[in-house]
């Protein structure tokens, strides 16, 4: 126990003596959390800029334009009768609605006119929301116009509604019912940043010993590879839990991210995630003896991991070889579990697959690191 405490104390001292690592480890998650939080503080997409090419200039086209502008998602920022007026400002609109000449007359005489919607596909999120808003408005007006037409033919209003609307559609959302984009993004980004800074710190654990030829100091304290492993790992595990605690207690509530009711499940999931990162980082730090190269190697793993984790794009839609790579990244399973805890308010029993996967990563990389430490301790004589 004395040897373990001595190595833990030594590791804490090395960590806090590195000002750059200290600033990145604690500063980056808080900085990025605040940055992302304020970036998506509006939470849902609204007031998307659209343009209307109104070649009809009729009461019905004016009604359509007013209805589009009143929709939650939309803001009609330009109305014109000529396409040429939009050419210069085309990128600034998320969608363009074209109302053809003679539109109202064609509606009245049932000639089935077409309204064309052109969606800006450069940003799929804003384009999709604009498309949803426009189609909702036009669908409502379309139904209303048909009902009015039937009324003019002498059909009673209730009968007209039944003829047009065979069944009603009630649309609602569950799990993030308000389409809060902040609730969607912030936990995932924080998990990714946590992984990145954690691996950055762990890249220095053994590469520092190799570069400075100080491994003899560890072997003088103990020859037990398990104690060396735990002595190097525990400080990062403690610091990681402390850092996530700060995020969970201060940052997430500040931006109104709901706290899971099952706090124990969240703590266990976070602990296993940090354990898997610790074992993976220590293995790479041992294999790559240069601090710079170890950092670069771990950044290659962590930088694309948010994209490859399946958080924003389903794993099932990725090629098999990318899925295989994703399944080796602890972040993949942590974000799956975190989404379940925050959105689904699930129990620990529903996280068995994610926890087991992270424990397998921990076991494989941890055992490999222990073997390497054992070989090193046997090979290197004790320095007196």
TrEMBL record:
Source taxon at top rank: Bacteria
Spans traversing the lipid bilayer: 20-40, 181-208, 234-254, 266-288, 358-375
Keywords associated with the record: Cell membrane, Membrane, Transmembrane, Transmembrane helix, Transport
The ABC transmembrane type-2 domain, residue ranges: 147-380
PROSITE patterns according to UniProt: ABC_TM2
InterPro entries with a match to the protein in the record: ABC-2_transporter_component, ABC2_TM, ABC2_TM_bact-type
Subcellular location: Cell membrane
Pfam family of the protein (one): ABC2_membrane_3
PANTHER family linked: MEMBRANE COMPONENT OF ABC TRANSPORTER YHHJ-RELATED, MULTIDRUG ABC TRANSPORTER PERMEASE YBHS-RELATED
This protein's name: ABC transporter permease
Provenance organism: Flammeovirga kamogawensis
Upper lineage: Bacteria, Pseudomonadati, Bacteroidota, Cytophagia, Cytophagales
């Amino acid at each position: 126990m004395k040897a373990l405490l001595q190595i833990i104390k030594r590791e804490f001292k090395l960590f806090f003596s590195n000002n750059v690592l200290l600033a990145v480890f604690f500063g980056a998650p808080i900085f990025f959390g605040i940055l992302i939080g304020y970036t998506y503080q509006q939470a849902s997409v609204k007031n998307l800029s659209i343009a209307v090419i109104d070649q009809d200039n009729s009461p019905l086209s004016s009604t359509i334009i007013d209805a589009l502008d009143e929709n939650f998602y939309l803001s009609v920022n330009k109305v014109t009768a000529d396409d040429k007026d939009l050419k210069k400002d085309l990128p600034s609109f998320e969608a363009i609605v074209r109302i053809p000449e003679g539109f109202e007359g064609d509606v009245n005489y049932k000639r089935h006119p077409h309204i064309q919607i052109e969606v800006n596909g450069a940003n799929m999120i804003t384009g999709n929301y604009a498309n949803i808003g426009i189609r909702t408005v036009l669908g409502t007006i379309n139904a209303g116009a048909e009902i009015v037409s039937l009324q003019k033919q002498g059909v009673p209003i209730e009968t007209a509604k039944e003829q047009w609307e065979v069944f009603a559609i009630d649309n609602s959302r569950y799990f993030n019912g308000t389409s809060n984009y902040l609730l969607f993004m912030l936990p995932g980004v924080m998990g990714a940043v946590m992984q990145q800074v954690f691996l950055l710190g762990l890249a220095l654990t053994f590469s520092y010993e190799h570069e400075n030829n100080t491994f003899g100091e560890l072997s003088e304290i103990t020859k037990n590879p398990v104690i060396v492993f735990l002595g190097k790992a525990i400080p990062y595990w403690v610091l990681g839990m402390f850092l996530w605690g700060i995020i969970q207690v201060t940052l997430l509530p500040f931006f109104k991210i709901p706290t899971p009711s099952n706090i124990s499940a969240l703590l266990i999931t976070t602990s296993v995630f940090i354990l898997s990162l610790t074992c993976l980082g220590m293995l790479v730090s041992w294999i790559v003896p240069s601090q710079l190269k170890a950092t670069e190697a771990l950044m290659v793993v962590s930088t694309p991991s948010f994209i490859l984790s399946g958080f924003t794009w389903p794993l099932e839609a990725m090629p098999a070889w990318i899925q295989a790579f994703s399944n080796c990244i602890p972040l993949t399973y942590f974000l799956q579990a975190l989404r379940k805890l925050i959105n689904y308010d699930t129990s620990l029993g529903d996280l068995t697959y994610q926890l087991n996967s992270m424990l397998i990563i921990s076991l494989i990389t941890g055992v490999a690191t222990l073997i390497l430490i054992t070989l090193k301790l046997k090979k290197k004589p004790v320095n007196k």
